[in-house]
């Protein structure tokens, strides 16, 4: 299979925070890979902007170092790297100051796509939006890209939306959730809506329950201060897991267009029931061989912030009434693994006799590692000896299906940045979606704070606190194993 790459239109992309970690680790390497693959035109321009005292050549040297560090050696082509560095420039700009903006304005080309990537803290969104507007740099066609965290609660998210809306129309705003840029996540939509096989079964009549797991092995690392104010609920559940839940549970949109898809996702969030306290498990990792305890990591021995959360959710609509959704995410768990598992109900009657055991179909959508989709089916165990049943996977892992090309699956950021340039908002969160997710999240957090809940301890390298297992066992169900 040869991937067809359609070059995007020439563009000027300004990365505010162009010297930061995200720019160096993700944004610049992604752009380089798109240029090397022939999707980013050679006359595109990427302008880093930050306070650091650098000129074009100093920034190019920094970008070269970032590419050498974050692009795998096999993907580094000296000729493509040289062409990419030609596209790169720098402006020294303080988002809250007035210097440098006129120079940036003079750099912008006419008749090209203009995009501004705000890879800076949310406190700088308004000063940047104002200055882009006041200096005539942002045009009505320009696009603005913002990163998570998009707010800390409903009130702050509303404020960020209102601040951006002062200078940009919603059709110009691209709120990134990089989970939506993952190949498998889009494949989830292809599997659901491109095949006749699954959609008729995609409801509470046939689906016993759905599990979504996003497990990390890392602790809070250097982000302790931020993380301790957020916790797993705000950092992961409110955005990434909620987005995955929306895609798996939404009604078929009328077309694969930005507003059709986002309208359906929004309906899912609005149909979520209130969560009972008994359906929430929060945990904190203890000290272990791989590192100190959560409380040591955030330097607060009295912290009650969760590094793990598991929840049982219900969606009140005709499709899903009666099918629970179990979501969990946490740090310092057994393996780095993200998976959505759709567990179908038992066959209504076993013609092979009750002693043949319970067999159920399962659709597993793996986001990482080894992106792919696996369908568990029941077959006869080969050989003589009567009708013995066995569950086997029909594996649609990309590595198998696509061969060496699977290695070439673009990083989520590559796809998302190219979507910004193309003006396709389908895989970005709309303002009302983000606000609805916070409107659902806030009372849950307020309730556990009012109760004074203390997170349950869990061992590093485990599957989270014992209470999370009980959450499932109580319903006669089991979590899928967390495995890399
Ligand atoms: P970072 O490493 O701290 O970088 C911040 C960038 O902002 C630097 O380039 C800094 O450069 C620039 N900056 C700070 N104050 C500025 C000002 N007043 N005017 C102009 N530039 C200013 O942060 P990061 O990790 O790259 O994260 C950037 C944003 O993305 C944050 O909102 C973060 O939450 C979000 N995010 C990051 C990641 C990640 O993996 N890193 C993942 C998801 C979301 P100077 O000091 O030179 O000005």
How would you describe the overall organization of this protein?
The protein is α/β, with parallel strands linked by helices. It has two domains: 11-147, Rossmann fold (3-Layer(aba) Sandwich); 180-410 and 432-473, Dihydrodipicolinate Reductase, domain 2, CATH 3.30.360. It is built from 14 helices and 15 strands. Strands 14-13-12-11-7-10-9-8-15 form a nine-stranded mixed beta sheet, sandwiched between helices. The longest helix has 26 residues, at 224-249. The radius of gyration is 24 Å and the shape is globular. 41% of the residues are buried. The protein binds NADP nicotinamide-adenine-dinucleotide phosphate. The site of NADP nicotinamide-adenine-dinucleotide phosphate has 22 residues, from helix 1.
Question: What's the arrangement of strands in the largest beta sheet?
Answer: 14-13-12-11-7-10-9-8-15
Secondary structure: helix percent: 25-40%
What is the assigned CATH homologous superfamily of the largest domain? Dihydrodipicolinate Reductase, domain 2
* Number of DSSP-assigned strands: 15
- The CATH class of the largest domain is Alpha Beta
The tally of structural domains comes to 2
How much beta, percentage-wise? 15-25%
Strand and helix order? EHEHHEHEHEHEHEHHEHEEEEEEHHHEH
The CATH topology of the largest domain is Dihydrodipicolinate Reductase, domain 2
Ions and ligands: NADP nicotinamide-adenine-dinucleotide phosphate
Regions with little confidence, pLDDT below 50 for 5+ residues: none
What general form does the structure show? globular
Radius of gyration: 24 Å
Count of helices?
Answer: 14
Give the integer mean of the pLDDT values: 93
Roughly how many Å apart are the termini? 27 Å
Structural class computed from helices and strand pairing:
alpha/beta
